[in-house]
Amino acid sequence: MGGSFNPAHEGHLHISLLALKLLKLDEVWWMVSPQNPLKSADGMAPFEDRLAEARALVRHPNIRITDIESRLGTSNTAESLAVLKRGFPKTRFVWLMGADNLKQISRWHQWTRIFNQVPIAVFDRAPYSFGALAGKAAKAFFRFKRKPTDACNLADMPAPAWMFFHTRLHPGSATNIRARRDSSLGPSGQKDAAKRQKVNK
């Protein structure tokens, strides 16, 4: 599961625990992105801080927080997956994401390559599910959509193969967490935080 994790929150953990249970995975990797090319650097906490916050949040033996994208030097998901598959040829990878990402994955670099590289598990996230399932990616790969009742076999399915899970929703939101942090700082604190972000870029 890749992302900015700006910051990591209980919603990420909720999806990870569901994936471990439903898909019968050995591990879930949180690949903290140095900088999402589709997101502005403004308001983005330093990479080291986001990585540390994710590690502080998770205390589960089967969830690994990794800086592997930074170490690989890859700049997009398709490239990262290609390198991982070459580096771990005996490992069966599944890409995990929320419905919000399915809705806009067609904007990602070489997004069809992602579908053709690994099976994908998409988890419900309000209010994005309807738009995601009616979106470009879901329509393009509709015939490769598998039933969630076969979830435990997803990792063994040849790509393209994807599933959508209408699971219990979690209210966690990085946007809301950042907004609460900013409001608790007050006007002067927000200015100081903005200055620190510019210095750390």
Low-confidence stretches: 192-201
* CATH arch. level architecture: 3-Layer(aba) Sandwich
Considering the protein shown, what is the CATH homologous superfamily?
HUPs
**Which sequence of SSEs, written as H and E, runs from N to C?**
EHEHEHHEHHEHHEH
Q: Note the total helix count.
A: 9
Biggest sheet, strands in spatial order? 1-2-3
Which range best describes the helical content: under 10%, 10-25%, 25-40%, 40-55%, 55-70% or over 70%? 40-55%
| CATH hierarchy class name | Alpha Beta
Q: What's the main sheet like?
A: 3 strands, parallel
Alpha-carbon distance between the two ends: 24 Å
Classify the beta-strand content into a percent band.
5-15%
Q: What is the number of independent domains?
A: 1
The average pLDDT score comes to 87
Structural class: alpha/beta
Our Rg estimate from Cα atoms comes to 17 Å
Overall outline: globular
- Overall number of strands: 6
Description:
By secondary structure, the protein is α/β, with parallel strands linked by helices. It has a single domain, classed as HUPs (Rossmann fold, 3-Layer(aba) Sandwich), CATH 3.40.50.620. Helix content is 45%, strand content 11%. The chain contains nine helices and six strands, in the order βαβαβααβααβααβα. The strands form two sheets. It has a three-stranded parallel beta sheet with strand order 1-2-3. Strand 1, helix 1 and strand 2 form a beta-alpha-beta unit. Helix 4 packs parallel to helix 6. It starts with a strand and ends with a helix.
